[in-house]
Amino acid sequence: MLDPKLLRSQLDEVAAKLKVKHFDLDTDAIKALEERRKSIQVKTEELQSERNSKSKNIGRRKAAGEDIQPLLDSMEQIKQDLETAKQELLEIQAAQDEILLGVPNVPADDVPEGASEDDNVEVRVWGSPKNFDFTPKDHVDLGEALGVLDFEAAARLSGARFVTMRNQLARLHRALAQFMLDTHTLEHGYQEVMVPFLVQSDALMGTGQLPKFEEDLFKIPGERNFYLIPTAEVPVTNLVRDTILDAKDMPLKFASHTPCFRSEAGSHGKDTRGIIRQHQFEKVELVHIVTPDSSFDALEELTSNAETILQKLELPYRVVSLCGGDLGFGATKTYDIEVWIPSQQKYREISSCSNCKDFQARRMQARWRNPATGKPELVHTLNGSGLAVGRTLLAVMENYQESDGSIRIPEVLWSYMGGMKVISPHAD
Known about the structure:
Elements: H1 4-9, H2 11-18, H3 27-63, H4 69-101, E1 121-126, H5 139-146, E2 149-150, H6 151-158, E3 164-165, H7 167-187, E4 191-192, E5 198-200, H8 201-207, E6 219-220, E7 226-228, H9 233-237, E8 243-245, E9 252-261, E10 280-290, H10 295-313, E11 317-321, E12 333-341, E13 346-355, H11 359-364, E14 366-370, E15 375-378, E16 380-388, H12 389-399, E17 407-408, E18 422-423
Parallel strand pairs: 4-9, 8-14
Antiparallel strand pairs: 1-11, 2-3, 5-7, 6-7, 9-10, 10-16, 11-12, 12-13, 13-16, 14-15, 17-18
Helix pairs in contact: 3-4, 7-10, 7-12
């Protein structure tokens, strides 16, 4: 969440910046609550001063043998008034917190203006789309013809937006995840972590999925308040919740391969064909925990690390800077990496790499001890897919397809596939 002090001192400036995200901050409600808080705070200080003064009078009058009962009665009233004021302050604080939990992060100054993904700004392009001498098929037709993608079986088990993979394709999916983890841990210096796939609401509150995006989550009925994770960002980032990190241990860089579960409540009718948008999918997630002065450099590093996967796979892609209208709730700046999909003749998102600055850290109370001051300060958190495994799989399928419907395997994956170089109806 945003710093409450920022809203007190720069409310109009924050409201103006949030308009870049097409978010209208209710400044009147915030100002009204702040005025009430100030008024009650002044009243509380006056009551405390009166209580102290009368307490001294009680001592003097008692020593002089005077009747102190009237003073004791008034002290009891002051006590009740102070308790009432304390309760009112708690209610105001709760109302302010409720507002803050629904306010998105402030965009960075260089975030482009715009209303939707159509207004995102291209930063760079890598590789060139292949010119096929035949009409390329989409991954659904390719996979079904090879007998390695089965949507009907998955639908019988779980309904729409699920898939079953078989044989060589299931192995290729697994190989991609292993390849991504090996690249990030062995070449980029990430710690691999295995985390729970079920989390409690506090973890989702910490990274910003709750309370605003509860409809997109799968909640487990019962007394323990469990949710299936929508991304490894949630449990991995929460590893530093309620901690004070030593400066010598930073930056922290984590990589985690997990399933992800999303109800896609806001995406009805979008990408209903194939595996681009599923209720269950897998990702290799990258998370950085850094000092405040290095988070924008870390964003460039994280994005570059994710790009490396596509470069090794020789898949054409581009990087775009998200405009304000497309920027996520907790992000101050985001790069999307979009891979080329031949059947659609366009680039599609395969990773979002975001700097959240101290937005998540304030919710989690994740801090580091600044050696310059000796005091705890909030860390900055970043996250990004490195990459979404299913979307990488379909990109490989479509970009490496042959005219006979077979799929070549990228050379960098041969060792992960036991030497297999092609998926065809006759492959072992």
